[in-house]
Specification:
By secondary structure, the protein is mainly α. The chain contains seven helices and no strands. Helix 3 runs antiparallel to helix 7. It is flat and about 45 Å long.
């Protein structure tokens, strides 16, 4: 039920943002800020934005409903294909779920295993850095080959 509510709330936010023309303003502002950057750097920026948003919206489908109406057209504006934008979303959403304390699944699993979050954080941090490094490599390859 919680995931369904999250998707519903995210969709409501998108509908309100579209009707109030907020998405156009956000797209214009973001494209003017990162549009001057090389596409690869803009892709990295998008990865970290998705990771940041995942801290607050842990539901993958809720985050997709909230961010993809902005990220996909933004990618088109800055020279990143829609497929690569989805890849960036998947990296930002998927990998961070193993380290963010707002992930109910992570916290429940740690509680059942009796592992304190601080101990988990120290253990998983190096692996997360490796995953984000590999993500950046794959994002670079996807953008350079114009993956679509």
């Amino acid at each position: 039920i919680g995931a369904a509510l999250m998707v519903g709330f995210a969709r409501a936010i998108v509908v309100i943002a579209e009707d109030a023309h907020i998405i156009d303003t956000v797209l214009y502002t973001l494209s003017s800020l990162i549009g001057k950057l090389p596409s690869v750097i803009a892709g990295y920026f998008t990865l970290f934005v998705q990771t940041f948003i995942n801290f607050f919206v842990c539901s993958g489908s809720g985050q997709a409903a909230l961010t993809m109406p902005i990220i996909a057209p933004l990618g088109d504006l800055i020279g990143i294909s829609s497929q690569t934008s989805v890849l960036i979303f998947q990296f930002g959403d998927g990998f961070s779920n193993a380290i963010i304390p707002t992930s109910a699944t992570l916290m429940a699993c740690l509680a059942m295993a009796g592992i304190p979050f601080t101990k988990w954080f120290k253990w998983i941090l190096k692996f997360q850095l490796l995953l984000y490094g590999l993500s950046m490599v794959f994002i670079t390859i996807a953008i350079m080959m114009n993956w679509s």
